[in-house]
Amino acid sequence: MNPMIRGCCVLLLGSAALGGCASHPSSEVVLQQAGNDFQKVKEDTNVLRIAPKDVIRAGESLARADRLSTYWGSGADVVHYAYLSQRYSAIAREHTEQVLNEERGAKLELERQRLQLALREAKLLSVQQQGKWLEEQIVSLATTQTDRGLVMTLGDVLFDTGEAELKNSANRTVLKIVQFLQLNPKRVVRIEGYTDSTGGENENLKLSRDRAQAVADVLVDLGVDEKRVQVEGYGDQYPVEVNASERGRAQNRRVEIVFSDEKGQLGAARS
Prior knowledge:
- This protein is an alpha+beta fold.
- It folds into two domains: about 25-125; about 130-260, CATH 3.30.1330.60.
- The chain has helices at about 5-25, 25-40, 45-50, 50-70, 75-120, 125-140, 170-185, 200-220, 245-250, and strands spanning about 145, 150-155, 190-195, 230-235, 255-260.
- Strands 1-2-5-3-4 form a five-stranded mixed sheet.
- Helix 8 (about 200-220) links the parallel strand 3 and strand 4 (about 230-235).
- It is elongated.
């Protein structure tokens, strides 16, 4: 073969080899990534509870890749077992997320059924007795009379930090509101959400509205006509305490239920 042609071929083959190496991460990098993925699933208590077998497989594959990394010429095997470890870690996370979603759905459905059963049982009381008792309960809970109407405050303890899902501890109060509205079909409510000053303006507005909407969704789910429920989110506007202390911030993180009068007239919403 012509020396010049042979030189060109060698150069081309060398370039191709370099290009192939550049397009694939080294076995050390893949091994490190697999180790990071395994560490995350190993430290997640939900993953350990739901997908222990996949976590074990991920650990075994990672250990094998680690052992092979000490032998010369076993780079491809290291990458293979490190990849297997990553896949098992990913499968464990995916399986866990699926099961957690199913558990959350089952919990919400069970709680909805429990509330509806309690509502049906409550209807067995005489309407007159029930109405008088509920009116007293609502008035005792809604201690603030404002130009917007009678206001009931649901405190921050009814929500997890940064979350919009109502805790079970809110159900008793929500149930009273539902019963009160059923016995007073002309009344409407405006549900207003508020946050403290922590976080950005857009995030606070979204969280405040999501929390108010969560309360509204429960009312509607339990039989209140959605046309009787208004929702507003005000973010960190209209604080009731200064945000300089944790106590003040906790009081500002709230949902307020504003009741109309007996004719269904609500005070003007905040602007």
